[in-house]
Amino acid sequence: MFELFSPRARRVVVFAQEEAKRFNHQVIGPEHVVLGILSDGEGAAAETLVGLGVRDDAAVIEVLKITKPRRGGAGEGYLPFSSEVTTAFQHAATEVRSSGADELEPEHVLLALLRKKRGTGAKLLRGLGISPDAVRDQVRTMMAQPAEEAGKRPVGKRIDYYDDPKAPTANNLVPSVNVFVVNERDEVLMIRRTDNDNWAVPGGALGLGASVPDAAVRKTLEVTGITCVITGTIGIYSDPKHIIYYTSDGEARQEFSLVFAAYPLAGEPTPSDESREVVWVPKHELTGYRMDRSMRLRVEHFLAGGPTYIG
Fold first, then answer.
1. Lowest mean pLDDT among 58-67, 105-114, 121-130, 174-183
2. Contact assessment for residue 226 and residue 181, using Cβ atoms and an 8 Å cutoff
3. Which domain range does residue 257 map to?
4. What is the mean pLDDT of the chain?
5. With the CA atoms of 188, 193, 197 and 200 taken in that order, what torsion angle do they form, in degrees rounded to the nearest 10?
6. Which of 36, 61, 100, 213 is the most exposed place for a label (fewest CB within 10 A)?
7. If DSSP codes are grouped into helix, strand and coil, which group holds residue 39?
8. Burial call 152-180: b when 16+ CB within 10 Å, e when fewer
C-alpha cells in the first residue's frame, strides 16, 4: 500500500509521527495526521484547512482536548498507526487504484479520514469550528482543477452587506482585529485586499492560543511584513446589520472587530496572499481611497481622535 504514497504523502506521515511523539502518544491517530498535513503546508489538503481558518496553534490546543499527553517517552523507532488511520489509508489506496491515479496524495488521506463522521479527524475539525463537509467539498473542488492549478488556494471573494434585505443570514461570529499602524511621518499602513480590491488597514480573524494584542501584531506582520507594537484602542465594532459573506465557503459573518492603534518597529511593506498592495498613506489622503462603509467608519473615528468607539 505505501508504495502508492507520493513524496508529499510520505512527508505527512513523517510529520504525523513527529507530532505523536511530541505528545508522547503510543500510536499515530487522525489528529496527528491532520497536524502533519498542516506541518507540510503544501497542496489542496493543507491549503483548504488553512483557507477555512485552521491554524497550527489552535489545532494543537484542540488535539490536547481530544487526547492528553502521556507520561514518559513515546518510545524509539516508528510508531504504529491507529486502526482508524490504517482503515483510512486502505480506503484511500482503494480509491486511488480505482480512479487510475498514479499516486496517493495527502488529499486522499484527508478525505478518507473524514468519511467517518464521528471519527477523530471530524471531531477535531468540529472542535475548531470547521465543518468537515466544507473541508471535503473544498478539497474535492481543488483536486478537480487542472494539474497546473492544483494546490493553489482558490481566491474567493468577500462581499460586504449593510442593512441589505438581500444579505445572506449570518452563520458565524468570528472575532477579528484591525490595526492602524502610524509611522513617524504620520502615515498610516494600508493594504489593498485581494478578496474585494478595497483598501483597508491590516487585520484578520482572532484564533485560539493567542491574546488579542498578540493576534493583532501577528496578523499585521503576516499581511504587511511590518512588525508593530500596540499603543491604544480605537474601538469595538459589532453591528449586526453588517454581514461579511465569503464566496469560497459560504461563510456569512456578523461583524465583530476590535480596532487598535500601533507603531511600527521593523520591516518593509510587503504584499501577501491577502494584500495586493501595502503602502504608507498620509493621514490627509486616507479618505480618498476606495473602501467599504465599515472600514470608512473606522477611518473616520481614527482621524477624529475621539474616545474609544463602542458600537
1. 58-67
2. yes
3. 158-310
4. 87
5. -30
6. 100
7. helix
8. eebebebbbbeeeeebeebeeebebbbbb
- In the numeric block, which cell numbers belong to residue 253? 459573518
189 φ, ψ (degrees, to nearest 5) = -75, 120
Question: Distance (Å, rounded) from C-alpha 207 to C-alpha 188?
Answer: 25
User: What confidence tens digit (pLDDT) does each residue in 268-290 have?
Assistant: 999 888 888 999 999 999 999 99
Would you say 181 and 228 are in contact if contact means Cβ atoms under 8 Å apart?
yes
- Interatomic CA distance for residues 129 and 114, integer angstroms: 15
- Which uninterrupted H or E stretch holds 204? strand 203-205
User: In terms of residues, how long is the chain?
Assistant: 311
Work out how many domains the chain is built from and give that number. 2
- pLDDT given for residue 286 in this prediction: 94
CATH number at residue 266: 3.90.79.10
- Residue 190, SS3 per DSSP: strand
CA distance 206 to 226: 18
User: Is the separation of the CB atoms in 232 and 260 below 8 Å?
Assistant: yes
Maximum Cα–Cα distance across the chain: 65
Task: Please check whether residue 195 is in contact with residue 164, taking contact to mean a CB–CB distance below 8 angstroms.
Answer: no
Single residue among 143, 174, 194 that ends a domain in this structure: 143
CA torsion sign for 82, 86, 91, 93 is: positive
- CA–centroid distance for 218 within its chain: 13
Q: Which of 5, 42, 36 is nearest to 22 (CA)?
A: 36
- Per-position DSSP letters for 119-166, written without gaps between them: SHHHHHHHHTT--HHHHHHHHHHHHTS-TTTTTSPP---EEEEES-TT
